[in-house]
Amino acid sequence: MTVAIPPSLPHDLVTGVDTVVFDVVGTLLEPAPSVSEAYKNSSEKFGVTLSSSEISKRFSVAWEKQESLDAQNTPAFSTSRSREYERWQQIVCDVFEDSLAADKIFEDLWIHFGKSSSWRPVEQGCRLLETVRESGIDVAVASNFDERLLPLAKHIEPLIRIEKIFASSELGWRKPAPQFFQAVESRLQKEPDQLLLVGDDPRLDIAAANAAGWKSMRIG
Ligand SMILES: [Mg+2]
C-alpha cells in the first residue's frame, strides 16, 4: 500500500505497523551544497574546472553505471564496505574522466560527505518522523548510504536520537534487493507486515519495500 505526500500519518496505513523505517538521502537529509556544487568545489581545489551542469550530467550517467553493475552482480545488489568505497571512487573517476587529480578529488569528497556540515534536514521527512514518534510507533533508519552513515548519525539531527540505523555496507545488501529488507527484519526481529518504509525513491524505496511485503509511504 502506497500513499503520496503525507502531511500526517494515515491511520489505516499504520494499523499493525510496529516500526517505521526511514530512508536517509532525500528523505531525512539532503546534501547542502548540492552534489554537483560539492564536486565542483572539490575539483577546483585540485585545479580541475568543470561546470555544475556538466558535473550533474556526468554524475547521473556514472551513478546509473554503478547501479547496473550492482544489478548484474551475483547475487544482485550484494555489497560490502569495499564495494561501496569502490562505487564512489568509480563515480568520481567517471565524472572527472580519470583526470590525474581524480584520486585526490575522490578522497576529498569521501571526507566531505561524511561530515555533518555537508548535509541539511529534509523538512517534510523530519516532520513525519516527529509525527511517528508522537504516535508511539518505533522508528529506525535503513539506507543505501555506506559505513560513513554510522558516525555521521551521531552528529546530525534528526538521526542523532535514532538508535536503530542500518547501512547497506553493513547489511551486505543494497536496496532494491529483497535481502536488504530481510536483513532489516532480522535485525529488528519483525515480520514484513509490521514494517513501513518511508522513502523518496519510487523504485529503490517504494516498489522494493512493497515487493518485500512491507508497507510504504513516499515523500518528496
Ligand atoms: Mg533516498
Give structural notes:
It contains ten helices and eight strands. The chain is of the alpha/beta class and 220 residues long. It folds into two domains: 124 residues, 3-Layer(aba) Sandwich (Rossmann fold), CATH 3.40.50; 82 residues, DNA polymerase, domain 1 (Orthogonal Bundle). Helix 3 packs antiparallel against helix 4. 35% of the residues are buried. The model has no long low-confidence stretch (mean pLDDT 94). Bound molecules: magnesium ion (MG). Magnesium ion binds next to loops.
Annotated CATH homologous superfamily of the largest domain? HAD superfamily/HAD-like
Strand order of the largest sheet: 1-8-7-2-5-6
Question: Could you estimate the helical fraction of the residues in percent?
Answer: 40-55%
Low-confidence stretches: none
Number of helices: 10
**Element pattern in H and E:** EHEEHHHHEHEHEHHEHE
Small-molecule components bound:
magnesium ion
Q: Structural class, from secondary structure content?
A: alpha/beta
Overall pLDDT confidence: 94
The CATH class name of the largest domain reads Alpha Beta
Radius of gyration: 18 Å
Number of domains: 2
Number of strands: 8
CATH architecture of the largest domain, please? 3-Layer(aba) Sandwich
Strand count, sense and closure of the main sheet? 6 strands, parallel
* Morphology call: globular
Distance between the termini: 17 Å
What amount of the residues lies in strands? Answer: 5-15%
